[in-house]
Design a protein that fits this description.
Layout (H helix, E strand, L loop, with lengths): L4 H5 L22 E2 L6 E2 L37 E5 L8 H11 L3 H10 L4 E5 L2 H13 L4 E5 H4 L6 E8 L3 E6 L5 E5 L3 E20 L5 E20 L6 E4 L16 H15 L4 E3 L2 H8 L6 E13 L2 E11 L1 H13 L2
Parallel strand pairs: 6-11, 9-12
Antiparallel strand pairs: 1-2, 3-4, 3-5, 6-7, 7-8, 9-10, 9-14, 10-11, 13-14
Amino acid sequence: MGKKAEQIDSDEWLKDIPLQAENPAFNSEEMIVCAKCARTNPPTRLKCFYCDLELEISEAQSGFLRPNLRKLEVWEKGFNLIYQAKNENFDESKLSEVAKMLKLEKDSLQKILNEQKQLPLVRAEAEKETGIVRKRLQELGIETTILSDESLAVETPPKRLRGIEFWDDKIIFVLFNQTEIVEISNDDLVLIVSGAIFERRVEATEKRNKKGENKLLETDETASDESLIDVYSRQNKFGYRIFAKGFDFASLENEKQLLAVENMRKLIKKLREVAPDAKFVDDYLQVRENLGNTWQVELKTNSQGLRRGGVGSFNLANVTIADNKNQFLKYSRLQREII
């Protein structure tokens, strides 16, 4: 209900308006001038509002920043904050504060902390933004390191192996579908990472009606998994990969089994025997749920074109593939980076 005219004219009603304790605007010395377009920006931004150039931010100005931490696309390059396990204990309020900052569910954050392993907490777009988040986490008692997507280099896959030969003091890697071999000393084998690749394919057939709407006619879903081993030498940070399928287990000699899964276990055991100082990591299946918060399983949908559906009609077919190939490779390369 509005106030009467005599009430509005009176000074008394002004007392009901809450006073603003501080000026929400920034002082001129707090504003940031873009080096490219010379326009001023508030110190809450990482990039220029007008030309999108990354701003030069002083230590004092960085306190105003509000990191966005948007979810990056698969093809985008970013920077990962890797948790350094320190046996910290956090109360509910601090845990909630950290989860809110990282845009994580509190339960998901708690699971990562409980693992007490070096795992990714968040993936950010800019190195400066990542550095600011790292500093604020440090103030809350969480230690992290920054690892770029460039360092993980998932666009450069490991070289696949067809076989391995064991000699007294050296190992020979026989490359798949190539005549090339790689020879390293036993001491040069520094890392062995075991895991599995999972793939789920859904093929769908749709019919487009006269209104331009698609009606799902049928779907066909298949799933597969395959165990694998990544091995890294001291000189090669991209590594070598062993799939059970297509690998010659002749080097196991009398220990060779009928089942590929058993041969993979035997091969790991053999590698660890000849290189006892090499780091061995076999917990991917245990931590993959925690990895999924930052390094998601990739989902791709590809059109299969038109298929004849009957006399004078065509249906649209597509296939959707979900797999963890890049997720496992990132985890494998992370182990190589932290040796």
